[in-house]
Specification:
single chain, 344 residues, alpha/beta, 434 Repressor (Amino-terminal Domain), Rossmann fold, 3 domains, six-stranded parallel sheet, six-stranded mixed sheet, 14 strands, disordered N terminus
Length: 344
């Protein structure tokens, strides 16, 4: 019995539609009409249809997926572009995002294509790479000032951004403002009056919303907010000289709580305080944002839990809806919740 994989002159060759037609004793056009699954205008007798299907089964033939995708104008692939971010598999935040993207692709019967960071390439080069037909749609994890976002917003490729809202593109974000207010309300209820807030100097819509909402709520609740910063992109974690001075001031002026725009900053403060004899939470409370579960930590972090996996899944769903011609919301905002643990 001949099967789909035919060895010719030492080369592995797939059986073709022509060979199926020859086996069934019909035309290639008739085979195409039957195997494509589309009704069309071609009438095929039941016996002939069964003979074609039998021949295809004997040859273990299946239509060429790429050719079929090109005919229908779809590759069934959604891309992920992360700008300057590197997809570090040890980064639990990115791991949750990607797991959600994979779940979403499974639900939509799409594949996920990870694009590189394209360092050294011009914006136009990257733009052409992203719209060259390899993908049907794109999920972007980037910042507001990325010039590529403006170009893609005018393209025919359906794009959805995640985590940070970007002008002119639909986005899936978490309720950063609500999270900031929850942090302030929680600490005020605990009796804190002087709070140090560690923010990022790398401008991101998400972290800026968190900070502004926290500051407004904290001020309204009678708390004093001390603002410090350290770039989110800096390697590792360390406490700045300014922050050290605040933590070692006399009790009347020392902050009794530290609030961070990310869990990574918060865990860093917990480790630093314990290393210099400052007790957490007895001497200073620490609150984070993201809700990423970390192993090998000495204390469970009080934080704002954000559904990052659901953000990824929802982004894929929105890309699929845009591919179908649907309009989607400018911003899809997913709820967050405060998780009380051992650090505050």
């Amino acid at each position: 019995m001949t099967n789909r994989f035919i060895i010719r002159k030492g080369v592995l060759k797939l059986a073709t539609m022509t060979e199926v037609a020859k086996r069934a004793g019909v035309s290639k056009t008739l085979v195409s009409a039957v195997l494509s699954g589309s009704p069309g205008n071609t009438r095929v007798a039941s016996q002939t249809r069964q003979r074609i299907l039998g021949a295809a089964t004997e040859l273990k033939y299946s239509p060429n997926g790429i050719a079929k995708a090109l005919r229908h104008g779809r590759m069934n692939v959604i891309g992920l572009y992360m700008g300057e971010w590197i997809l570090n598999t040890h980064d639990l935040f990115l791991a949750e995002i990607v797991s959600g993207l994979q779940v979403g692709c499974g639900q939509q019967q799409k594949d996920l294509l990870l694009h590189g960071t394209f360092r050294g390439r011009s914006i136009n080069d990257i733009y052409i790479e992203l719209i060259n037909g390899k993908i049907d749609g794109l999920v972007m994890f980037t910042q507001q000032d990325d010039p590529l976002a403006s170009l893609l917003a005018e393209s025919s490729v359906p794009v959805v951004t995640i985590a940070d809202a970007v002008d002119n593109l639909p986005s899936v974000v978490v309720d950063d403002s609500a999270g900031g207010r929850l942090q302030a309300e929680y600490l005020a209820a605990k009796g804190h009056r002087i709070v140090l807030y560690r923010r990022s100097v790398v401008f991101q819509t998400s972290t800026e919303r968190r900070y502004q909402a926290f500051r407004e709520a904290a001020t309204a609740l009678g708390m004093t907010v001390i603002e410090t910063s350290r770039p989110l992109s800096s390697p590792g974690f360390y406490v700045t000289e300014e922050e050290r001075e605040w933590l070692h001031k006399g009790s009347a002026h020392r902050p009794t709580a530290i609030v961070c725009c990310t869990d990574r900053f918060a865990h860093g403060f917990v480790n630093h305080c314990r290393s210099v004899g400052i007790r957490v939470p007895e001497d200073v409370a620490v609150v984070g944002f993201n809700g990423i579960v970390m192993e090998m930590v000495t204390l469970d972090l009080t934080t704002i839990r954000a559904p990052w996996a659901e953000v990824g899944r929802t982004a894929i769903e929105l890309v699929a809806r845009r591919l179908s011609g649907e309009e989607v919301s400018k911003e899809t905002i997913l709820p967050v919740e405060l998780i009380e643990a051992q650090t505050a």
